[in-house]
Amino acid sequence: MNIALDVMGGDFGPEETVKGAYLFIKDRKECKVTLLGKKDAIEEVLKRYAFDKKQVEIIHCSDSVENDDLPSDVIRGKENSPIIVGMDLLKARNTDAFISAGNSGAVMAAALFKLGCIHDIKRPAIAAIIPTLKGKKIILDMGANVDCKPIHLMHFALMGASYARSELKIENPRVALLNIGEEKSKGNQLSREAFALLSEREDIDFMGNIEGRDIFLGAADVIVCDGFVGNIVLKTAEGLSSMFMTDFKMSILRDLPDDDTTRMLKEKFARYAKMRNYKTYGGAPLLGVNGLCFICHGRSKAEAMKNALNSASIFIENHGLEHLKELDFKSE
């Protein structure tokens, strides 16, 4: 297994990205990571870690992609950037997956340009694994498509259910449409028409609409929405989680006496905070393109990159891309 990693992307590359690769391969001796980026910068970081040289390859990429670069400019003018080189490796089947915490718009555009979509797929979707009271669940799209048609949401539902089966081992995932009410007549035209399409599918366990308050209660295994709504949900959840954790520490923990009970409480809180932190869940796959691409949070540090690599390895081992290609995306 070989996974290509954009070392220069994100706010903390290459230091944290290389460290994440180190944490991953030291536990996965059968895996190889191809590091894409400035060779000198990568080698400087590598000096600080005891890598097995057989598990690491460096491909020098002279071009850099900035967060404010237009995707079209990256495709046309930065052919030797980690994003474009990574897509070329995927297309040539010289790597099993590509991961980047860099410019997500450029990653998606390059994936569409270089790899194309799986048969009959109209739009790819970013699928995020989220924590809930009933375990890990999946929500998509997280921002790849801000304007959608009903058929796109149907495709998201099919891909999300397949991802839940391969990544979360949920045999028959329950799929729900995110809406402003549970009744099928609720919502805008997109929601109502998508509801009708999903209701007709016998290969989806469609449970109907759920509201925003139901997401983190674990009411559904796969939650479907357009990328505009999904991205707001994700960023709102991140902000709320950060607010709660900070407020709890500042308002409660710091005023407790310094004794064994307090230390035990702080340890439990730290474990809880880790379970609810986006870093624990790593990257999100861009489902629907003809290759395995994972997009990571721009602020991802070593643990998040390690977990993204682990998620990609599970997807590869479970033949997730092959299962996606077997789905029937046609609509009557």
Structure, explained:
With 332 residues, this protein is α/β, with parallel strands linked by helices. It has 11 helices and 11 strands. An 11-stranded mixed beta sheet has the order 3-2-1-4-11-10-5-6-9-7-8, sandwiched between helices. Helix 4 runs parallel beside helix 5 and helix 6 crosses helix 7. The chain is globular. The two termini are 39 Å apart. The model has no long low-confidence stretch (mean pLDDT 88).
Summary?
The protein is of the alpha/beta class. The chain has 11 helices and 11 strands.
Overview features:
alpha/beta, single chain, eleven-stranded mixed sheet, globular, 332 residues
